[in-house]
Amino acid sequence: MKILVLNGPNLNMLGIREPEIYGSNTYEDLCDLINAYAKEKRIAVEIFQSNHEGELVDEIQDAYSEFDAIIINPAAYTHTSIALLDALKSVGIPAVEVHISDVAKREDYRQISYVREYCFATVTGLGFHGYLKAIDLILERENEG
Ligand code: DQA
């Protein structure tokens, strides 16, 4: 099992950006947490962050026949990007959408998610732990065959 974890714009600013919403742990802490959990579960993960929509599209395209699943937190592109939705549809790799905050309880402009249509599950409001939950969901899905 090889999972690609994709993080969108401003997630590199975790620990600095709006700590009352996203917490005080850093992006590096998030990567360490995901890598440690992957090791425990004996799976391979690759983590990529970009502030640029096209780079995220490229990364999804490059995942074709390379990765078994994608965990994606498109950040603000969640609410704007049909390109990311189309890229996921293009490669056909099972995907889980993750948000650190509980987007359903936030501003109206955060209530649309384009990638949600494609993703087989969405995890929101669990903080960094949401990424680990997404790994569990992917492994459960794989075991269900
Ligand atoms: C986010 C929620 C988005 O609305 C926001 O633009 C982000 C982070 C989250 O993880 O809670 O940058 O995706």
Features:
single chain; 18% strand; five-stranded parallel beta sheet; 5 strands; alpha/beta; 37% helix; binds 1,3,4-trihydroxy-5-OXO-cyclohexanecarboxylic acid; 5 helices; 145 residues
Structure in words:
The longest helix has 15 residues, at 129-143. The chain contains 5 helices and 5 strands. The mean pLDDT is 98. It has 145 residues and is an alpha/beta fold. The chain has a 5-stranded parallel β-sheet, sandwiched between helices. 1,3,4-trihydroxy-5-OXO-cyclohexanecarboxylic acid binds at residues 10, 73, 75-76, 78, 99-101, 103, 110.
Describe the secondary structure blueprint for this structure.
Elements: E1 2-7, H1 19-22, H2 27-40, E2 44-49, H3 53-62, E3 69-73, H4 82-91, E4 95-99, E5 121-124, H5 129-143
Parallel strand pairs: 1-2, 1-3, 3-4, 4-5
This protein binds 1,3,4-trihydroxy-5-OXO-cyclohexanecarboxylic acid.
The site of 1,3,4-trihydroxy-5-OXO-cyclohexanecarboxylic acid has 10 residues, from loops.
Main-sheet strand order equals 2-1-3-4-5
Main pleated-sheet profile: 5 strands, parallel
Question: Given the C-alpha coordinates, what overall shape results?
Answer: globular
- Count up the helices: 5
SSE-based structural type: alpha/beta
- What percentage of amino acids are in beta strands? 15-25%
Explain briefly what this protein structure is.
With 145 residues, the protein is α/β, with parallel strands linked by helices.
